[in-house]
Amino acid sequence: MNNWLTVKSFLTIISIAVLSPLSVNAQSKKHTAKGPYSAYLFTYFTGDKAGEAIRFALSNDGYNFRALNHNKPVLNSATISATGGVRDPHILRGADGKTFYMLATDMNTDKFGWGPDYGMVLLKSTDLIHWQSHVVNVPETFKEFAAVNRVWAPQTIYDPKLNKYMIYWSMRFGNDADKIYYAYAKKDFTGLETVPKQLFFKPDGGACIDGDIIYKDGKYHLFFKTEDKGKGIKIAVSDKLTEGYMMIDKYVQQTTSPVEGAGVFKLNNGPDYILMYDRYTEGKYQFTRSSDLENFKTIDDDVTMDFHPRHGTVMPVTVKEAAALTQKWANAGDVLLSATNKQIKKNNIAIDTINRKLMLMVNPGTNLKKFDPAFNIFPGIKVRPSSTQDFTKGAVNYTVTIGNKKPQVYAVSATETHNPIGNGYYADPEILYAEKDGKFYLYPTSDGFDGWSGTYFKAFSSADLVNWKDEGKILDLQTDVSWTKKNAWAPCIIERKVNGAYKYFYYFAAGQKIGVATSDSPKGPFVDLGKPLIDSLPAGVKGGQQIDADVFNDPKTGKNYLYWGNGYMAGAELNDDMVSLKPNTTKILTPHKNYNEGTYVIYRKGIYYFMWSENDTRSPDYSVHYGTSDSPLGPIKVPKNNVVIAKNPAAGIYGTGHNSVIQIPGRDEWYIVYHRFTYPKGITMGDAAGYNREVCINKLTFNSNGAIQQVIPTHVGISPVKLK
């Protein structure tokens, strides 16, 4: 993948990217603006419905990618394929430096499910805009392969010894393991001219798919996904293109999550390589960096994309080529959405393309008197002004010019907001004031994973409830918990003094069970008990999940209680060890039929307040309600007007729920912490809004009779809280 040669003359071959033993590694020199490549083209497909089509994105640095054509297909799958769908696109610059080759799996899962899949699509272009395509059905083309039922992830590489393009792909006969085969393409790249031969197979008989070959230091490195017990990405190395591959016996992916679709490309400005792959069960893509193609370091925190790719490849492009791509597929709105200033909450950029307005939310303390959004400018695009501007006086007009298209003017505003807190997707927030160090701590669910498939927990600290510091991972199911590895959800925590020292008890849902971990610091790390605390439904309950724990210390008695449930509310007293329930104290407390999940209990002026979420977290109407009691184990009285917080459509805020509450020490001052759909995209995401959420804080107030006043969720949020 992404290896190519430029033929300068009949006798001289100069390598633009390392490929053959005869080539010169031109990219080992640091490329600047004077070098041949200024950007990167990412070809990919998406996993959403009807997403099996080729899409393009651009990057200036190989780290920050922006989709072209509004993240819509650049080619019509119905006209280039037999099935009406294509996946796994691979793009290559030709040996002449000006012809481009692209391959894709001919596959339409929306229409035909997962096979059988018989074909691949071969594409050829001289300008990256217009493509000629041809379908190759392997069983129909080669009689000896009539029993093949899977043809996946084709790629191509130039063979300088034969002056031909070798195509390689994964293929399966019947129920046998997938193996990697190869054949040579016809000169015009319209089909295969040789009978497929086996290129590589796992010595242990396991399947191997998604091959990607890159040449480095006299060796061909074949990256592939294994389907054995370990499952992951491995490398096989050979000094010959078509034979002799020896497997290195270690996995190179930097995650414990399932992965596929490895793609490797060389950076334009140095000797390093990027290995990227699809964490397909989570809806995530991971980037890693390496200088030797043996040791890889995760660089996820440095990578941004405004799209969710599946199995794709990256190829460096020139200024001229990038300008042609932007002329064809870029638009002013997408250019402005690319603002890269680190003070901008990138998930919360809102654009109005009709009235040509761009609204930026920025972090607390941002200097808006001298502020530059730092738009990501690709070749062929100009944005003016290009320096810092004063946003305190209102919107600033920006003019965007793309090639020879008519310039467009947008009014760009920037506003400091405290909701959501920080950047990123988080949900189910638990908040704690730690007496040990006098700081607030936030413990959320790590969100943004398809189907709530996150596997770790993080903590954040603050001195004022506005400025938050990421304290990193405090518990990872993959490495720290033995009894389950999935669905890290909805934690809660309590600070207790044990033998004169502060200790922290952290309750969490995982695998639809509730566990507990302990630490001597609110920052963790936390040590799991080694077994679930709650792993079955309470007596008398016939449905629901063991999730959404809440821990509560009764200031009247000093006793501690744990609450949990989905579809039901249960509560029980904790033993003094805080890691076990007191026998015969479990009670079902479900307040009324609309109860769903997310119980949270507080005590104020002699009243126990029980809060919970109604509706589904994927619903815009997800909201918090409450009831009161004279006891920590009920019964609960539900007032007629019992809404604590609900959506605010006028502000574009939806899905406000699963809350916790914090009281400022020594004062009758309260704040509600909750999650909402990510703004502004959440309401357009359908069910996916339910696992792309963000954490917010608003003030919680009470009437003179003790009733909770309904909270109106806002973007502005709260002012910094002073403890003293």
TrEMBL record:
* Organism this protein belongs to: Mucilaginibacter phyllosphaerae
- Family recorded in the similarity comment: Belongs to the glycosyl hydrolase 43 family.
Q: Where is the signal peptide?
A: 1-26
Name of this protein: Beta-xylosidase
Q: Which Gene3D superfamilies does its entry note? A: 2.60.40.2340, Glycosyl hydrolase domain, family 43
Please indicate if the UniProt record lists Signal as a keyword. Answer: yes
Keyword Coiled coil belongs to the record: no
GO molecular-function annotation terms? hydrolase activity, hydrolyzing O-glycosyl compounds
Q: Which SUPFAM superfamilies match?
A: Arabinanase/levansucrase/invertase
InterPro entries xref list: Glyco_hydro_43 (IPR006710), Glyco_hydro_beta-prop_sf (IPR023296), Glycosyl_Hydrlase_43_Enz (IPR052176)
Offer one example of a GO biological process linked to this entry.
xylan catabolic process
PANTHER family in the record: ENDO-1,4-BETA-XYLANASE (PTHR43772), PUTATIVE (AFU_ORTHOLOGUE AFUA_2G04480)-RELATED (PTHR43772:SF2)
Which keywords does this Swiss-Prot/TrEMBL entry list?
A: Carbohydrate metabolism, Glycosidase, Hydrolase, Polysaccharide degradation, Signal, Xylan degradation
Q: Name one Pfam family in it.
A: Glyco_hydro_43
Judging by the UniProt lineage, the source's domain of life is Bacteria
